[in-house]
Specification:
The structure holds 2 protein chains of 2 kinds. Chain A is an all-beta fold. Chain A is built from no helices and 11 strands. Chain A is globular, with a radius of gyration of 13 Å. Chain B is mainly beta. The N and C termini of chain B lie far apart (41 Å). The chains are: A mainly beta, B mainly beta.
Chain lengths: 114, 114
């Protein structure tokens, strides 16, 4: 069974640009969450989607947005990129939203802002 | 909000036992997860605790005390490949909708030496 797939793996952008990252969850998983990981802050929750609806949102500015499609695939978008947005962006999927569902992570997209 | 504390770094000898502690403060506890993350790779699920007590899974065990806001991950018969970052994540009830969001600690970097 294929794991969580994130594309692209690496991305270089400049300040002010916008970027779209993609995540394909494990087949059958309907919940997708996005995280930002930096050396200084660790893993920080961005948002969670289930059945095409955003269920939760972390403490990030409105420049960060996402969506989920009917096949559970998800995208996140960051507009007006800033230097501080340089990070590893991780997507995680789980079967559902019940508390005991472990999350399975993709390898991430490493975004560098110049 | 919540606060999750775990040591930044630990070192241990191959074949030994190591205990990684995690303390947390939360308003609507709904489970605690441990993940392992090797450098440059995605986090992988290790264990889940929602009730007090010890959960054993091979060389790894995880303990939870909800009244003390405390968990530990115990690694036995350490191997060099266990050198990694170990992330403690608490699932907490958020928002008016009552859904759950995992919040991650900054991770404990474990170095296993011969």
């Amino acid at each position: 069974k294929a794991g969580v797939t994130q594309t692209p793996r690496y991305l270089i952008k400049t300040r002010g640009q916008q970027v779209t990252l993609s995540c394909s969850p494990i087949s059958g998983h309907r919940s997708v969450s996005w995280y930002q990981q930096t050396p200084g802050q660790g893993l920080q929750f961005l948002f969670e989607y289930f059945s095409e609806t955003q269920r939760n949102k972390g403490n990030f500015p409105g420049r960060f947005s996402g969506r989920q499609f009917s096949n559970s695939r998800s995208e996140m978008n960051v507009s007006t990129l800033e230097l501080g947005d340089s990070a590893l962006y991780l997507c995680a999927s789980s079967l559902g939203v019940e508390g005991n569902q472990p999350q399975h992570f993709g390898d991430g997209t490493r975004l560098s802002i110049l | 909000g919540q606060n999750i504390d775990q040591p930044t770094e630990m070192t241990a000898t191959e074949g030994a036992i190591v205990q990684i502690n995690c303390t947390y403060q939360t308003s609507g506890f709904n489970g605690l997860f441990w993940y392992q993350q090797h450098a440059g790779e995605a986090p992988t699920f290790l264990s889940y605790n929602v009730l007090d007590g010890l959960e054993e899974k091979g060389r790894f065990s995880s303990f939870l005390s909800r009244s003390k806001g405390y968990s530990y991950l115990l690694l036995k018969e350490l191997q060099m490949k266990d050198s990694a970052s170990y992330l403690c994540a608490v699932r907490d009830r958020h928002g008016s909708g009552g859904s759950y969001i995992p919040t991650f600690g900054r991770g404990t970097s474990l170095i296993v030496h011969p």
